[in-house]
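Please predict the structure of the following assembly.
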Amino acid sequence: MRRAYFKFSWVAMALLAPQLLIIFVFFYWPSAQAVYWAFTLEQPWGGGNTWVGFENFRNVLSDPYYWASVRVSVIYALGTTALAMVMAMTLAVFVDRQLAGYKAYRVALIWPYAIAAPAVGLAFRFVFNPNAGILSYVNTVAPGLWDPTQSAAQAVLTVVIAGAWKQVAYSFIFFLAALQSIPRSLTEAAAMDGARPLRRIWDLQLPLLTPTIFFLLVINITDSFTDSFGIVDTLTGGGPFRATDLMVYKIYADGFRGFDYSGAAAQSIILMLLVMALTFVQFRYVERRVHYT
Amino acid sequence: MIERTPLLNILSHVILLSGLLVILFPIWLAFVAATHTLQAVNSAPIELLPGDQFWINVKAAWQESDFGPKFVNTLIVSVGVVVGKITLACITAFSLVFFNYRGRMLIFWLIFITLMLPLEVRIVPTYAVAANALQPFQVLLDVTGLTSLITWLSGIEIALEWNLLNSYTGLILPLVATATGTFLYRQFFLTIPDELVEAARMDGAGPLRFLWDVLIPLSKTNIAALATIMFVYAWNQYLWPLLVITDRANYGMVVVQLSDLVPDALTTGGGTPNWHYAMAGTLIVMLPPIAIVIFMQRWFVRGLINTDK
Amino acid sequence: MAEINIRKVGKTYGKTTIMDGVSLDIHNGEFVVILGPSGCGKSTLLRMIAGLEEITSGDIAIGGKVVNALEPRERGCAMVFQNYALYPHMSVAENIGYALKVSGMPKAERLAKIEVTAKSVGLTEFLDRKPGQLSGGQRQRVAMARAIIREPKVFLFDEPLSNLDAKLRVQMRHEIRRIHNTVGATSVFVTHDQHEGMTLADRLVIMNKGTIEQIGTPEEIYDRPASIYVAGFIGSPAMNFLPGRIGPDQNRVVLDDGQSLDLSGAARAGAGQLVQIGLRPEKLTFAPAERAMLKARFDFAEELGSGRVYHLKLEDIPLSLTSPEKRPMIEGEVVGLTFAPDAVHIFDGTSGLRLATTRQTAQVSAMA
């Protein structure tokens, strides 16, 4: 631990103040506000809020639309995470073999990270559009067979694919970095021990990737619960018939379109607890750094 | 290493190329759509090769969305967020590492917990705060009875108000707090040997001087790494500007503009979308952060990996 | 069991040549140490034998079979890496037995062999541990066991002792030699530590800048270094070099400071040729003025406990002398030095190569 410090003075406080003020105003106050709203109900004639206990939560939890939203959020989280991670890991393992052109592969797989979620949503909205996209031909043969603007299942599928597509680059970067930090001499020792490349992937690289896999699993799930707004908004707008109304999107819609602050706040609190639990798991149980000695 | 694995090498390339295809194909289709007329885009089967309408479509999309001033706005906000985040991360971490006072751990945890409160989750009340950023203080004064006390004493009624809607400040300020950046800087500062601090003190340098003359030059790589990821983060903000800016003519950001490119069945009742313009617009909006990631690849990857998220 | 034949092996990366026409024959069951400073190509040569590094030209044969294109696993070599390269996620037993597992040996047989091998290097009680829970010396043993268990034709060691402390290093040195003697496989050991090289090797290979300077037994290399480079590299403190010129009668060497040394016809070189005279510090002794072959000024002395290293100066040329004798001396004092005639090494002043003396030529012809 550090033993040399500067003498404590107003400087220390002055340096802390800006960040603390900002997190107070924009993080803690709104969160407290959300808690307040979640347990109160605004009077219709504007006479302040009255305490209603857990009633808002009861309303939310007894709302079938809310449970539909939870269901599709879980499908989205697990679907995007699984798809993105399997793809990212496979690609990272083969890019790591450093065959001819691996640098080109690497760049090509990294840059999609930079694309804004709504841009991804819009591009996929075109790609899966029933009249203009890749599957439009299907509809000339069998009209209406492919239409994510009408079919709930197809809409969920497109949202999951777009979400996974967006996540691949992030996981790929981490997998590749983890693979490249495996000491060369380990690979060489395994080669001398007679293990061929595929065997080395199985016996050496995958086991050494385990911490990265866990880390990315938690991060990706957390992200897909909170970070899905941009994709949903431009791709489906929550539709058709609320089929892709992910939790974050529903909070936004209930709060800003339905002006149901208390309901939105109760949903926010539930999502907050979920994110907290996931973050806790991440920092408590996931040891991302591996020491190879 | 000598290894004869022709079959495996072919298999590797096949896997990599198909991965590449999956990743590039959607963007390729978007690009192709941006190079054709609407009629060609809407014909089935889909066009797979680019046409000759690219510049026409780009120009049309640019004018339709009035991208010019919006690019300027987005650039101002992105640079503001990057500079703000790096500055805050640096000075907060400096205070936490190089001074010894009670409550340091508490402050560290206060910052840490913000990781668990992403904007999307607290969006409604945060929006309410943006409408009056001084509201928390007003409420505190009201609740503690200070407002009425001051009114009673001086006759002045306190009504604090600072509306951040439709302003650069409103776009930037709520985004500049950074737990990850603070952690990254804290990690870096913890590796600075005690002797360096002691030497600076022997030389008569105060804390701010030490920060400016020693630590900031040493943390250049940190700054570059953080700046690239933060720029991409800021450029791609969507939900917050969508809410805070209603005056899009003056304060609009390019990414938000995407929501207007295709008629939304919910708000405008649908209609045939101008896919060729929409995809051209999408490509225009994507380009700057992609360029950053490709040209600053080394810093970007380092920043991403070190900030732990 | 196998001999290794390296014929004119070269390696280039783009335009830079890092190894140039290296030839070396290692006999069956021999312990050869490749010695040189870092960057001399010694590790590259070892990795070429292992198949971890491709060769650009030449041939490498193991057991009479050219292996240039063979993969590491097909060459029958086992290697101990500098940082041990233990698999961090496997237990000690799994580490030791991994090669056998890959080769498809049944589990029961494998476990029995692991047991025996672990016992031979004193690891029995650590078999369930992970490498992270072991000390440096124990990890070293695991790396050894992993090599031994395969009963390879060839053992390759890439500076395996450099991460250990001095005491452990000596202990492991004996251990390695003991294992070599019992197993009897051919061993190639790379190091930059001359003590390690001298004590372990049947034959030493001295490398410099991607080429071999000299091959020979430790004794040969110490007694008859083939070049100034080898002479300066082997021996501690390093050999003294005095520049000079062969005198007109070819029996004397005139040093740069004007002193002349009587070599009584030892030098087989033309009159006037530039030479470097090499004298090992431990072969020099103090002598009274009348018997002195050389005179030098005393500079300072280093205490070793068992003796001293005296630092002298011949004009500006430093000269050192080791002696168990502890003489009181004052700085600047002129002292006389003497040495046996056969302690003199003469090197060509320009090429740095050894010039055979008549006496040594006579010895060589007598041996032949």
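The radius of gyration of chain B is 25 Å. Residues 27 and 174 of chain B are 32 Å apart (CA to CA).
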